[in-house]
# Entry
Amino acid sequence: MNKAAMSLVLVVVLILAMSSIVGVSGKDGSQRRIIARCGEGYLEEDTQENRIIHLKGSPYEIGYQQGYMLSEGVEVITKDFVDKILFTMMGLDISGQDLGVMWNLIRGLILELSFASEEDIPEEYRIEMQGVADGATDAGADVAYEDVLLLNEAIDVLMGTVYFLAFTLGEVISIPFFIKNLKYAWDPISVLSIPELKLGISLPACNQFAIFGGGTTDGRLFHGRDFMFNTCGILQDYTLMRVAEPDEGYPFIGVTAAGFVGVWGGMNIKGISIGTNMAPSRDCVPFKGGEGTLFVCRDVVQYASTLDEAIELVKNAPRYVSCNYLVADGKIPDAVALETTAHVFEVREAKDTYKDQIEDKPDLVIAINHYIHPKMKLLDRGICYYGLITMSGGGLDSEWRYEHMCDDLLDNYSQIDVDKAREIIDMLHPPNYEYLEWEYHQFKYTDDPTQEVSGAISVFDPSNLEVWSLYGYYDNPWVHYSLEEELGMA
# Structure
């Protein structure tokens, strides 16, 4: 090797060493350092311990990189979190391990239903899940493919069955709650005095909006996404930002947690963003799998370059559980709410107006946990809607969040910038006490500002390919990333 070549090698080695020690500045000016590498992937951490993982390559390589660099988190999430999530949703402070053999039977049944979904999950995601398991195992963790599958698919399997039972057997159980809640739907009956009844049920509930054009200060689109999910006191400590550069499709960014291959919500390099909300309805297929909603969101951020392409990907997905999606395209800009069940699909555009729709602006669309389209309302209204569903984050609870967020957006219409968008999507941030006035507020929310964030709260700017997110704990600072900068394009 000649002297010039030797010098070049030394310079490269020095730069790599310095990048691992000193790191680089993030979009918000915070210093980051690389704390792990695997193949073409690497894991960074800033001075406030926020992490961002970069994944690049084939499906197996991307999965392996995640599993290897996040091995501890993958094991904890696929074991401890999965063992608690079902019981936490029922308001029980126990783990499956506390049930011994009974839990083995329950887990085995859910796993069998998850395996029934495999044929509907794109092969590349199955390969990626295998990569996650292999990478974590090679790093010393105890993780199998079935553990990763269960994490990514089981929630949809459970919800498809829970919603079906709620709108059949649950109709009877809901009668006393329905009678009590009539006062919210029909004023003449508001004089009824029925003892307050509450259940410790907490199902996934989410809030989303997209506002653009005349609604914002400069016309660009902001997509607010509040992913409300049970943490079981575990998930918040393993939540981080992910940037993926798959060999096929488009690079994307979004908040995730160790072990997830599907997408909670994200944005790709083509300016497409998406999030999913569970929407309880009677049109679900129980005891049968399909492509889970997190994988559907992954389809969109990885393969959609236009709003129409995103709509078609959701429409053609093999659905078996009811959901509301919000999809935005920062290039146009425009956004739609996709109200879906196992067999029905409706597109609600920003320009549409319906009877129970509060937002009446042509550049504002909102998605919560209930339907607004008249056709879709036929599939969720009923005794259960005002009973068990209201007690668990849908129904009247969803309507309350919808009205609250609509009021904020309309009151600030035309004045919304990124700071206001963050404030509005973070409307449940403690100690905001408004939600405690609603008697059916989710019991997981209190007025404690140090509690864990239930999932992640984000604002996507798909016009400029930037994202702001709050996750972990409410007293953490928001993080800010530019997809272009993370990809080295800025």
